Amino acid sequence: MTFKHLIGKSTLKEGITIHRNFESFFESPDPGKKKEITLLYADEKSASVVLRRLDNVRKPVQIKYTNKAHAPFVDWLNAVFAATRKGSYGEFIEFHKVAPDVFNLRPITILIWPIMQNYMWQIPCITRQIRSF
């Protein structure tokens, strides 16, 4: 089983909210509790981040990486998902569970060719078709 998350601006800065259907995949803590999980990325690097469940009405589960120790991981996210950082849409990060509380990350990126950026105004019908999926 894997979990895919659509990259957004908050993903590149502070964290991810886990969809309810995948809370058990992450072995989420009880409301108001948190635990550390390890994210493996960039072939040999790892980041110890916080998995928490807020104790409010919705009780969302979040992965947070907001302190200075997480800076290398955040830098990697911003480098890998440069298209999202520049305003494009459609990049994902895939989580593969390799052990309890350990997840290997696989980026799913899009490539924006500079030449295509200059001609995007010429192909609005293709863009509409892609968005309609």
Which keywords apply here?
alpha+beta, 4 helices, At1g16640 B3 domain, seven-stranded mixed beta sheet, 133 residues
Please provide a written account of the structure:
The chain has four helices and seven strands. With 133 residues, it is α+β, with helices and mostly antiparallel strands. The chain has a single domain (2-131), classed as DNA-binding pseudobarrel domain (At1g16640 B3 domain), CATH 2.40.330. The protein has a seven-stranded mixed β-sheet with strand order 1-6-7-3-4-5-2, with helices on one face. A hairpin with a 3-residue loop joins strand 3 and strand 4 (45-53). The protein is globular, with a radius of gyration of 17 Å. The relative contact order is 0.20.
Question: What is the topological layout?
Answer:
Elements (H helix, E strand, L loop, with lengths): L1 E5 L8 E4 L15 E8 L3 E9 L7 E4 L6 H10 L1 H4 L6 E8 L2 E7 L5 H6 L4 H8 L2
Parallel strand pairs: 3-7
Antiparallel strand pairs: 1-6, 2-5, 3-4, 4-5, 6-7
Strand elements, count:
7
**Average residue pLDDT:** 87
Counting helices, strands and paired strands, the structural category is alpha+beta
CATH A-level architecture: Beta Barrel
Strand content: 25-35%
Distance between the termini: 24 Å
State the fourth-level CATH superfamily: DNA-binding pseudobarrel domain
Strand arrangement across the biggest beta sheet: 1-6-7-3-4-5-2
Radius of gyration, CA atoms, in whole angstroms: 17 Å
CATH topology: At1g16640 B3 domain
